[in-house]
Amino acid sequence: MLALAWRWSAAALAPVLPLHLRRRAARGKEDPARLAERYGHGAARPPGRLVWLHAASVGETMSVLPLIEALAARDPALHVLVTTGTVTSARLLADRLPAALAPRVAHRFVPLDVPRWVARFLDGWRPDAAVFVESELWPNLVAATASRGIPMALVNARMSARAARRWARAPGLARRVISAFRLVLAQTEADAARFRGLGAPGATCPGNLKYAAPPLPADDAEAARLAALFGDRPAWVAASTHPGEEALVIAAHRRLAPAHPGLLTIIVPRHPERGPEVAALAREIALARRGAGQDPGPDTQILLADTLGELGLWYRLARLAFVGGSLVAHGGQNPLEPARLGCAVLVGPHTWNFTEILDRMAAAGGLVRVDPGPDPAAMLAEAVGDMLTNPGRGQAQASAAAAVAAEQAGLPDRIAAALVLLLPGPGDTSAAPGGNLAAAPALSGPPGERTRVDGT
C-alpha cells in the first residue's frame, strides 16, 4: 500500500513539478539548459556494455571517481553513465574526471521519481548494471530498475543504527527493498551487520571508498602565486563551514591575532553563494573575497574563499585545517581531504557523518577534537593556537592522519572486480542491454520526497 501510495502521489504531482524545477533553476539549484534530463530525456546510449552509477551529491561523486577509473581499466570497452542530483556535483565531475576517461563517461541529472519519467530514462539508457552509492534510494527509480532485471549493487553503503530500527518496524518491506541488491558493500562492519539483519545476508565490508579518493586538485601556478603572496605568515583554513560556524571562526581569529602577528584565516563556506553573508560578519577586520577576484594583501586578516572546487588549493597553503559542519549539528564534512594533503585536522563534536573514519584517525593520533564548552570560539582559538605554537606537534598529527587516509588505496580496484561480474561478457549477445540477468523482484520504498536507506 505504501508503494502504491507513493507511485500514485508522484504521478499526481507531475504536473506541478516543472514549476518546482524552474524555481530551483532560478535559485541556481538546477541547470536551466538541462531541465529536460529531470524528465528522463537526453539519453545517448553508447554501443557495448554500460554501467550506471548514481551518486546523489558532491561527496558520493568524488568517492566514485577512483572506482570509475578502476572499472575503465578492467574493461577497456566499458562505458559509464553517472547520474547526480545537484549542479555542484555535475561541475566537479566535469572538472575532475581525467581527460582520457571523458569520452567514456556521460553525466546526466537523475530524473525525478515520477514513474513515466523514470521509465523514459531507463528505456533510453538501458544500462547493463546499476550501482547506487551510499544510501539514496528513490522508490520508483529502484523499483523500475529491478523490474527490468538490471542487476543492482549498493556500494559504500551506510545505515545508521537509528535508520535500522526504523526499517525493522516494517521487516517485510525492508527485506523487499534491501534484497533487491545483488551486491551490498558497506562502509563499516556495523553497516554490513545492519544490512544483513534487514535482508541482505551477503552484505560485506570491503572498506570505505572515501579512504581511496585522490587528493583534491589545485592549479600549481595559482598555488605558487598565492604562496608568494602569503609569504611566511601563519595561516589556517576553516573548510566547508556552515551557517553559525563562520561567526565562531571570526571570533577565534580575533582571539588569536594578537599572539600570532600576521595571522591569515581562510574561510571556505560549504556553499560559496553565502559569500556576501559571511563577509558581513567580519566587521572591522580587513577581508579579501576570492569570489570577487580579490587577493590577500599584507594587511588582510581574513581571506574569504567563496569559490567552488578550490579546497585543494587552501589545504596545500594552510597546512592546518578545521573541518566544518562539526561545530553545528550538521554531522561534519570529510576529514580525509585535508589529511591527504598533509594538514593537521581539527573537528568539532558533531561528526556522526564520519564516525568510523574519525575514530581511526583519533586512535592513530591524527586528529584534534574541539570541545566547544560554554565558549566555542575560545576553545577553537585554543586548539588552533596550540598547533600554530607547536608546529612539530601539528606535523606529527598531519603525518598520522595521512597514513590513515592512505590505508585503502587498492579498494576501488577490489570493488570494480566485484562489479564487473554483474556485467555481460564481451561476447555475450544473448540479451539486449539493460536486461542481461534474471529479473529481480519488484520493490519499493516508503513514501517521501527522498527515501534513503539511512533514513535521512
Protein described:
The protein has 456 residues and is α/β, with parallel strands linked by helices. The chain has 2 domains: 2-212 and 409-422, 3-Deoxy-D-manno-octulosonic-acid transferase, N-terminal domain (Rossmann fold, 3-Layer(aba) Sandwich), CATH 3.40.50; 220-405, Glycogen Phosphorylase B (Rossmann fold). Helix content is 40%, strand content 13%. It has 18 helices and 13 strands. The chain has helices at residues 2-13, 17-26, 58-74, 87-96, 115-125, 139-147, 161-168, 171-178, 189-197, 220-230, 245-256, 275-279, 311-318, 336-340, 355-363, 376-389, 391-405, 411-419, and strands at residues 50-54, 79-84, 105-109, 129-133, 152-157, 183-186, 235-241, 264-269, 287-289, 302-304, 320-323, 344-347, 368-369. Strands 9-10-8-7-11-12-13 form a 7-stranded parallel beta sheet, with helices on both faces. A 6-stranded parallel beta sheet has the order 3-2-1-4-5-6. Strand 11 (320-323), helix 14 and strand 12 (344-347) form a beta-alpha-beta unit. The relative contact order is 0.14.
Q: Biggest sheet, open or closed, and with what strands and sense? A: 7 strands, parallel
Find the count of extended strands (DSSP E, 2+ residues).
Answer: 13
Q: Evaluate the radius of gyration.
A: 23 Å
- Please state the overall shape, judged from the principal axes of the Cα atoms: globular
Strand coverage percent: 5-15%
Helix content: 25-40%
Helical segment tally?
18
CATH topology of the largest domain: Rossmann fold
Mean pLDDT: 89
Strand order of the largest sheet: 9-10-8-7-11-12-13
CATH class of the largest domain: Alpha Beta
Low-pLDDT regions = 429-456
